[in-house]
Amino acid sequence: MSQAPARERNAPMRNVTPNDRRDQLAHLLFDYIGGLKRRLMASVPEELKDEFGAVTWHQLGALEQLRAATETSSGATMNEIARMQQCALSSASALVDRVIRLGFAERLSDPDDRRIIHIVPTKVGLEMLDRFDAARKAVALEALAPLSDDDLERLVHLMARIVDAPVQGRLGAMAHD
Fold first, then answer.
1. Do the beta carbons of residue 66 and residue 77 sit within 8 Å?
2. Within a 10 A sphere around the Cβ of 82, how many other Cβ atoms?
3. Domain coverage including residue 88
4. S-S: 1 plus which of 35, 73, 114, 175, CB 3.0-4.6 Å?
5. Are 33 and 62 in contact (CB under 8 A)?
6. pTM (two decimals)
7. Are residues 92 and 98 in contact, defined by beta-carbon separation less than 8 angstroms?
């Protein structure tokens, strides 16, 4: 994993304002997130890379969202997928077309209104997601091995605070684009 240089991580705080230090730490956090992502990607076993090779991370994310949508409704419409993916309707359509061509999802007409089309994962798509979930769990456990249970619990708690915090200012406007 790419790590920030020790001199930067442990830089003395002489003449550093709290805002400067916070900026440094925010920069380091994003460096570590990128490094963690690279480490996780590199640790996926070759046989799984071969199995999931035709599928992109973006497609897997969309398929996971479709699986979640089928747990609470009849699937997701194209507008709902565009909202979930935070993208334009045309981009969502292209993404869904690729997932359907791979055989992982299908279009179903709404029984009450034939104008409404729901996108749902296929049995093959759900099986692939189950295998991917198992592989992701194994990769995550390996990547998190350097942490004690207490450290891991603290990390998860801190990440939850970041993710669950109300979105404000410019970040809030970007999240709704």
1. no
2. 19
3. 49-129
4. 35
5. no
6. 0.67
7. no
